[in-house]
Amino acid sequence: MSQFGQALRRGVTSKYKLCFADSLSYVRFVSTSPSVQVHRTPIVRDVLERAKRKYQKEDEDILPFSDFLTDSFGRRHNYLRISLTEKCNLRCQYCMPEDGVNLTPKQRLLSTDEIIKIAKLFVHEGINKIRLTGGEPLVRKDAVEIIEELGKLGLDTLALTTNGIVLPRKLPQLKAAGLNLLNISLDTLIPAKFEFITRRKGWNRVMQSIDQAVELGFNPVKVNCVVIRGINEEEITDFVQLTQNKPIDVRFIEYMPFDGNKWNFKKMVPYQEMVDSIKQRWPDIERLTDRPNDTSKAYKVPGFAGQFGFITSMSEHFCGSCNRLRITADGNLKVCLFGNAEVSLRDALRSGMPDNELLEIIGAAVGRKKKQHAGMLNIAKMKNRPMILIGG
């Protein structure tokens, strides 16, 4: 019996069995004893319908989730991040090694058809949010076509993480294709410093992208800011100020170690230190309620249109509520951003493997996912891909 039935049943003596008439105008209390007559009791239709909607929604939330996407700790993975390309038109210091990376040959990258096939398989098993990443996903020529196809899958959320450099001329198309969530990376509000961090020009275009996204109705527009001591930590309050008049959600990201980004503990500005610096200017900041599986700890300055938050992967990990899986541009499944275990879905697809066997491979990888990452100091010593080859 559904939660709806159980809820109504709790108000009835255990001697009766509860049934619903098709019209929803009556509830019949059928005695479990054959000697007792059936009682047909009229009730108010709209009260019953409201109750049924409420409990049916709760029932949907507890429907059995795919075993293939559930790990050994009971975490249900309904969020898939797909990297469209390893290429990028910036060279951010925390993402790409100074001497660049060896790009995967094109024939070994996932094709458009392969991306859509993988996405459909995951959606069938319970994925309801897909985010496209890179590299810079919009340097892929068929990015709009891919989003159009993914937009037909009935996702709750179709998201994109971009550096914003080429976004202005493509954003109207992307929105029409079904994109409904946007993250734009920006680590400084100073144009000269932008060139230092990214080793390229383009600050004005990123700012244009943020404004255009707001104008087109993306709400909130998420702005990702990687905070690095000695580089941009003094700009934290300036970023918070951006949220005063615009529906922007600035997300301060703790500096994370990846191959070639010269991470060290002293460069990392922990979450609590960032909060303390903001409180010096706005002592009354509000801690907002986070939704299940949120990676960002959300805050708001009272009266501001937008909000801000902190992705605390290093100082206060959120592994226990992780619901994310990643597909790299070359078709590998990564179940943890900081883990170096991968399994090739590309090779399985190209071998002609049927879907049921492909799901077994996915399920085995998800089942091996660890309880939590190894900790920032251990991660720094581990061999892993540069961030640009994983997908941000």
Record keyword descriptors for this entry:
disordered N terminus, single chain, 15 strands, twelve-stranded mixed beta sheet, three-stranded antiparallel beta sheet, 13 helices, 31% helix, 392 residues, alpha/beta
Quick overview of this protein structure:
With 392 residues, the protein is of the alpha/beta class.
Description:
- The chain is α/β, with parallel strands linked by helices.
- Helices cover 31% and strands 18% of the residues.
- It is built from 13 helices and 15 strands.
- It has helices at 3-9, 45-61, 112-125, 143-150, 167-177, 191-198, 203-215, 236-241, 271-281, 345-350, 355-367, 376-379, 387-390, and strands at residues 16-20, 26-31, 39-42, 79-83, 129-133, 157-162, 181-185, 221-227, 248-254, 286-287, 296-300, 307-311, 324-327, 332-334, 343-344.
- The strands form two sheets. It has a twelve-stranded mixed beta sheet with strand order 10-11-12-9-8-7-6-5-4-13-14-15. The protein has a three-stranded antiparallel beta sheet with strand order 1-2-3, covered by helices on one side.
- Helix 4 (143-150) runs parallel beside helix 5.
- The longest helix has 17 residues, at 45-61.
- The two termini are 43 Å apart.
